[in-house]
Amino acid sequence: MSQENVELVRAICTPWESGDFGEVGWADPEIELVFADGPTPGTSIGVAAMRAAWREALSAFDRLDVEIERYVPLEGGRVLVLMHNRGRGKTSGFDLGDLQTRGANVFHVRAGKVAKLILYWDRAHAFEDLGL
Asked: What's the domain count of the chain?
C-alpha cells in the first residue's frame, strides 16, 4: 500500500512542478489542509475551504516554483514529500529563490484519497513534528 500511496502523491505533485495547483479530485471531501508555517498559517476543512486557502496562499506570489526532491513513504498511510520552493512575493518583491527555501508536505492517505495535507515552508518543522 505504501508504494500505491507514493504513486498517488506523485500524481498530485507532478502538476505542481508546472505551476498547476487546480486539480483537487485527489482530496477527500472533508480534507484537512494545514499550513503549518509560512506566510499564511492555518487550517481549512473541506475541498471548498482548501481551494480558498490555496488561492490566498498563492496570491501572495507573482511566481511560485516547486521542485520535488524526494517522496518518502511513512507509517500510517503517510507520504513525506521533500521539495524546494522558489518564488517572488507580490508585495515585498522578496525573491524566495535566493533563500533556497526547502519545504516539505505530509500527505495522509486513506482509501485512495488524501484525508489530510500538512504544508511546511521549512522542512525542519516537518522533521520535528514527525520525530525525524
From this structure: 1
What CATH number corresponds to the domain at position 20?
3.10.450.50
The C-alpha cell 496570491 sits at: 59
pTM for this entry:
0.88
In the prediction, which pLDDT does 14 show? 94
The answer, yes or no, to whether residue 97 has pLDDT greater than 70, is no
* Pairing of the two strands 113-120 and 27-35: parallel
CA–CA separation, 73 vs 54, rounded Å? 24
Q: Is residue 50 within 8 Å of 33, Cβ to Cβ? A: yes
DSSP string, 33-95: EEE-SSSS-EEEESHHHHHHHHHHHHHTEEEEEEEEEEEEEETTTEEEEEEEEEEEETTT--B
At 16, give phi and psi (nearest 5°): -60, -35
CB atoms near residue 75 (< 10 Å): 6
- The parent domain of residue 64 ranges over 2-130
* Cα 6 to Cα 1: distance, rounded to the nearest angstrom: 9
